[in-house]
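Example record

The entry below shows one chain as it appears in the dataset: sequence first, then structure tokens.
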Amino acid sequence: MIELERKKQEYKELLINTPTYIIDKIEMQFDIAFTHHSTAIEGNTLSLIETKLILEDGISIQGKELREIFEVVNHQKAFNYIKACIHDDKELNEALLKNIHELLTESIFQGGIYRMNNVIISGATHRPPSSNDMNNQLQVFYQELKDKSKKNNAIALAAWTHAEFVRIHPFNDGNGRTARLIMNYQLMKNGYPAILIKNTDKIEYYEALDEYAVSKNLERFKSIVYKGVDNQLNELIGLLNTNRK
């Protein structure tokens, strides 16, 4: 964590001395990649280039389902929303989380409403709690969000927020995308850059989450988040240093 803190400080200092237009360009590149990978993990078939054409150039993609288009457009809206909330120094809570989910599912189905049925996650060992147990566990989750925000370091907090949320699985659909957004909410709120989980790494990602859900062992998933933050800081420091020359 000491080395990560050093890199975070270097990153923050570089941001101060970098023109806004360069920062905006770097952020847009990340936003497109984050949206692509987060939706692709859930089965969206739009390529990275197609996602760029939709989000950056406003070009519609022929031959794709409208739902897939909405998924990437909505993901960017939800990501922009959490950036605005962080700017306004808002804490992650139930109302904010429901708003994120509602933005993600806009024009697809009504979001922000907890499931009233039992669900099974395909390929997972863990079975989410019944709808009755889920409501009780959610209330514990929101209380622990407050408590852990005061005690845990940012990496552990971000990892736990994601892992515990998907363990409970409160919505019928969109839990993964919501979880990756609230993970990044915790990171960004604590001065770290947002990270992406690549679609190509989803098997390791799913296995780490399932391990937490079954045994409450967070170490494997926390390691993934730590590595993601370290990689992202290295990449951003390199890009910002290059643009200073």
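Notes for this example: Residues 219-242 form the longest helix (24 residues). The chain is about 70% helix and 0% strand.
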